[in-house]
Design a protein that fits this description.
Blueprint: E1 2-7, H1 20-27, E2 32-37, E3 50-52, E4 60-62, H2 64-75, E5 82-92, H3 95-101, E6 106-111, H4 119-124, E7 128-131, H5 141-152, E8 185-186, E9 189-190, H6 200-218, H7 220-224
Parallel strand pairs: 1-2, 1-6, 5-6, 5-7
Antiparallel strand pairs: 3-4, 8-9
This protein binds 6-chloroguanine.
């Protein structure tokens, strides 16, 4: 899989891919992540990437030219299955969309900034619009990193058996059960006995029961689906 991210703040997207699971996935060649600075494509003499909103009103709008030229440059080499615009008024992201996008070969993600991008980018250049939740971030970069992370960990070979995505919360519309590690008794706070019983059938049943219980308490909406 290849993920190309277009941004006016490329530095914001360095650290998420420079450590741990995502770095290992990149180093192993399981995913290619490209960060592209939109400003470098601006034909404006001051490399401007934004301008005043037609009709007035507060806030700058990202101009279409540098975005379009950056996209065209990347599209010389790659055919994209989706061109996603990160925006708080997009479709709300969830595990189902992550699963679906993780099967694609090439994905482009455009990060919005200021008051957003010129509407013609959304109408003519983008294939999908995604929000990561009902709150507003200063820009789409952190949201793009969230989406990229959730896709990359689903790629075959990225996680091993122990970290398998199959036992994640949401993967079966249930929250994950509680987990414990040593010591079995800390300050008198004990680990549930079943987990140290060695009876794997009982442990599986207990975990499933806990998953249902947690989901009922915390996210009853998931059980309605
Ligand atoms: Cl994708 N962008 C911004 N700026 N804010 C958000 C978001 C995206 N998703 C939730 N809030």
């Amino acid at each position: 899989m290849k993920i190309d991210i277009l941004t006016v703040l490329p530095k914001l997207l360095e650290s998420p891919f420079a450590d741990s699971i995502l770095k290992r996935a990149i180093d192993a060649g399981l995913v290619e992540v490209g960060i592209h600075d939109i400003r470098q494509y601006s034909t404006d003499k001051h490399h401007k990437v934004d301008d005043y909103s037609f009709g007035g009103g507060a806030g700058m709008v990202m101009t279409i030219q540098p975005i379009h030229d950056c996209m065209l440059e990347l599209q010389k080499e790659t055919v994209y299955d989706e061109i996603i615009y990160m925006t708080p008024d997009g479709e709300r992201f969830n595990q189902k969309i992550a699963n679906e996008l993780s099967m694609k070969k090439n994905i482009m993600i455009l990060c919005g900034h200021y008051k957003g991008v010129d509407q013609r980018v959304r109408e003519h250049l983008v294939t999908r619009e995604i929000s990561i939740g009902d709150y507003v971030l200063s820009g789409g970069e952190l949201a793009a990193a969230v989406v990229a992370d959730s896709l990359i960990r689903l790629l075959p070979g990225v996680l091993n058996d122990e970290t398998s995505a199959l036992s994640d919360s949401f993967q079966d519309n249930l929250l994950a059960p509680p987990v414990y590690t040593r010591p079995a008794d800390y300050n008198g706070w004990k680990v549930p006995e079943v987990l140290t019983s060695g009876n794997f059938k009982l442990i599986d049943d207990w975990r499933f029961e806990q998953s249902i219980q947690r989901t009922k308490e915390r996210r009853p909406d998931l059980l309605e689906d």
